[in-house]
TrEMBL record:
CC cofactor: Zn(2+)
Lineage of the organism: Eukaryota, Metazoa, Ecdysozoa, Arthropoda, Hexapoda
Protein's recorded name: mannose-6-phosphate isomerase
CDD domains for the chain: cupin_PMI_type_I_N
Pathway(s) this gene product operates in, as recorded in its UniProt entry: Nucleotide-sugar biosynthesis; GDP-alpha-D-mannose biosynthesis; alpha-D-mannose 1-phosphate from D-fructose 6-phosphate: step 1/2
Originating organism: Nezara viridula (Southern green stink bug)
């Protein structure tokens, strides 16, 4: 049985024939690929904001599953219809850094702030790279974070010097949280000055130093999202590239961002996005 997935054209997606999503989607409905369209995601599942259809009859997948409960098991069908959402993703520029709650946190957030948190489920995910996929995921080892704090002077423009000094002497959790809060609450003009200083300082440095201090990555971030407070988070989160076929599991509570590349991912079904 062939399915037609639901296309999402978010602005961060790859355009035209550069997107694997474009090829999959347009082949399934026999249409031409538009070079001006950002083909970002192809959803395969029963999500209300983008349900798959049966190719032969164009009926919703949920309708088929409700009439053929043996396909996914009777109990699963009664509880969920389909307990996961499968996506193919083509990323042209970095997505916002995101963190998803655990099951317990999701229940609590839904109870306290139902207008904002519309779902009671968590969102663990498995991702597999389709080609070279650049990722930020989870906090770096302490020694790496401390090295960047010592060696990147621009960080003192967005984090109080005393806070950095205290953390380098004794890395306490509350000071780490305060550093992140300082970064993520910085005004746009402060970020602009800080990023400009960083790029100008490293512009004529050796390639070795540019690589050591992630110059090209930060320059790319500054072009995609000028003056964004998350630009220097690559000094606190692991930055790496997955090769085609490599995978990672991202548990609830783990900060992460897809920077560039193609992937498939399976996420626990939620209804809030």
């Amino acid at each position: 049985m062939e399915l037609i997935g639901h296309l999402q054209t978010y602005e961060w997606g790859k355009y035209g024939k550069e997107s694997v999503v474009a090829w999959l989607y347009c082949n399934s409905i026999d249409c031409r690929i538009d070079s001006e369209t950002p083909y970002a995601e192809l959803w395969i599942g029963v999500h209300k904001n983008g349900e798959s259809r049966i190719k032969d009859c164009l009926h919703p997948l949920s309708e088929f599953l409700s009439k053929n409960t043996h396909v996914i098991g009777g109990l699963t069908s009664e509880m969920w219809c389909l307990p996961f959402l499968f996506k193919v993703v083509s990323v042209n520029k970095a997505l916002p850094i995101q963190v998803h709650p655990s099951k317990v946190q999701a229940l609590d957030l839904r109870k306290r702030m139902p207008r904002i948190y519309k779902d009671v489920n968590h969102k663990p995910k498995m991702i597999i790279a389709l080609n070279d996929l650049q990722v930020l995921c989870a906090f770096r080892p302490l020694r790496q974070i401390r090295r960047f704090l010592r060696e990147v002077p621009e960080l003192e423009m967005i984090i109080p010097k005393e806070l950095i000094r205290n953390y380098l002497i004794k890395p306490r959790k509350e000071w780490f949280i305060q550093m992140l809060l300082n970064i993520l609450s910085r005004e746009e003009d402060v970020m602009e000055t800080t990023i400009t200083c960083f790029l100008q300082r490293l512009e004529n440095e050796s390639e070795e130093n540019k690589t050591r201090y992630l110059y090209n990555l930060i320059k790319k971030f500054s072009e995609w999202c000028p003056n964004d407070v998350g630009i220097f988070m690559c000094y606190f989160l692991n930055y790496f590239t997955l090769e085609s076929g490599e995978s990672i599991f991202i548990a609830p509570g783990i900060p992460h961002s897809y920077i560039q590349g193609g992937l498939v991912r399976s996420v626990c079904f939620i209804s809030s996005y």
